[in-house]
Sequence to fold (219 residues):
Amino acid sequence: MQTYIERDVRMFADISDLSLFSRFVSLIAAYSTQEINKSQLGRDLGLSPKQASKWLDILIYGYQWREVIAYSNNLTKRVSKKPKGYFMDTGLLCYLQRISSAEALAAHPLWGALFETFCVNMIFRLAQSLKIAPSFYHWRSNGGAEIDLLLEIDSKFYLIEIKAKSNLTKHDARGILAFRESYPKANIQKGLILYTGEEAYSINDEVLALPWRALLGSA
Fold:
């Protein structure tokens, strides 16, 4: 962390208050998996929205933060909705949140966010091996249904939900089913739920449950 703040960041940004920037990084880490409202970002640190947005761009350019834009079949809406953000190093994220062990992580309020962050980062990593990487989105309906990750390639849609739980129910597939209902004409493939269990199985005809460790086996 010290090397990143004092050496790497200084290579491409002029930051006068490195201590405040370090606190900003810690704040952003806690936002991993959340939709980012840039007008409110950094308010707790006394930063203007413009300054906070500039610092967030620094994290993106420095490969510490990635954004996943919202999906809509209306191209103008794809850029008008809030993006979700992910911290790109879950080990550093744990350090910044002072999580010192696996036992502490299991009981931590950010456990679900960390699990989703790890899985999303692995999926991005695996996608790099494809000849043409898919487009990545997230999706949230006005009614609250959501998809953590939506991949689009060759006009086909692959829906992925990520659940930090070892036992799934049909209720966990509600976001995938809601997307299908919202876009009945889209070419949607069988949905996928990554979870902490050990078995792969079909939740219903449209959704498959898959252990998160399958991501490691494919790496």
Residues 8 and 62 are 8 Å apart (CA to CA). The chain has two domains: 1-109, 124-219.
